[in-house]
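Colleagues,

For the teaching module next term, I've prepared a clean inverse folding example: a structure given as tokens, and then the sequence designed for it. I'd like students to try predicting residues themselves before seeing the answer, so please don't circulate the second half yet.
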């Protein structure tokens, strides 16, 4: 790892690129000039990364996935084998689209894309959202949502640890506590937020006026 990252001898890396330390790029990958890949990522066999693609830290991309221009994968994203991203909504063989006509795709921190799922361009996959295998995502996916099917539909909510969340009303607020890891969530009109754990300095424990 002289460069700080490892690329198998069959991988083609078109310099200049930005690839973080600890990243591993396996057999037959192609990273185009200008691509940005963070630290501690794993790119499985036959992964393509476009010049205007952006990949955060600790992203895991399984075999046969193309990260095209204007696709952004934030930190900790998992891309299942052969999942598909897109960047032109209405392509034609004879029409040359400029990058100004591309639609961006954003996959937010911690989200999972299941095997063979397709994300139609112009959509955002929320933080820690989970896209089931084979789904076709045609709309934005909320944070922590579990969606699957064609087109993908909201079927539930998953904790960051992937346990299913069951919401109940407590003090007028839809609340869920993960049965596995104990993280707590609130759901307001399909917007799920993880409640921050209490700190010693939070009231009413802030006895020292810190
Ligand atoms: C979505 C997923 C997490 C399971 O969700 P779940 O709600 O626990 O699913 P269950 O097994 O309880 O199934 C519930 C129902 O949903 C259906 N279902 C589950 N996953 C589905 C999917 N991806 N697409 C369509 N239907 C699905 C089941 O057939 C079942 O239907 P039924 O009620 O008619 O019998 C899982 O099926 C999945 O797709 N995981 C991704 C696996 C993957 O791609 N891994 C990549 C790395 S190897
Ligand atoms: Zn949990």
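(Answer key — instructors only)
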């Amino acid at each position: 790892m002289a460069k700080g990252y490892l690329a198998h001898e069959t991988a083609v890396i078109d310099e200049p690129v930005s690839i973080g330390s600890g990243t591993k790029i396996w057999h037959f990958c192609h990273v185009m000039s200008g691509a940005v890949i963070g630290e501690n990522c794993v790119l499985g066999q036959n992964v393509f990364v476009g010049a205007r693609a952006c990949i955060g830290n600790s992203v895991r991309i399984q075999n046969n996935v193309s990260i095209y221009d204007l696709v952004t994968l934030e930190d900790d994203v998992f891309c299942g084998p052969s999942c598909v991203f897109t960047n032109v909504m209405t392509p034609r063989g004879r029409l040359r689209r400029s990058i100004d006509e591309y639609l961006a795709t954003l996959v937010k921190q911690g989200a999972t894309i299941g095997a063979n799922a397709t994300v139609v361009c112009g959509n955002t996959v929320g933080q820690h959202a989970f896209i089931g295998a084979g789904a076709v995502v045609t709309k934005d996916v909320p944070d922590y949502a579990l969606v699957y099917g064609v087109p993908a539909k909201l079927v539930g909510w998953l904790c960051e640890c992937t346990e299913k969340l069951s919401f109940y009303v407590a003090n007028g607020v839809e609340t869920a506590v993960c049965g596995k890891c104990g993280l707590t969530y609130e759901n307001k009109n399909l917007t799920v937020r993880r409640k921050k754990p209490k700190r010693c300095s939070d009231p009413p424990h802030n006895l020292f006026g810190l």
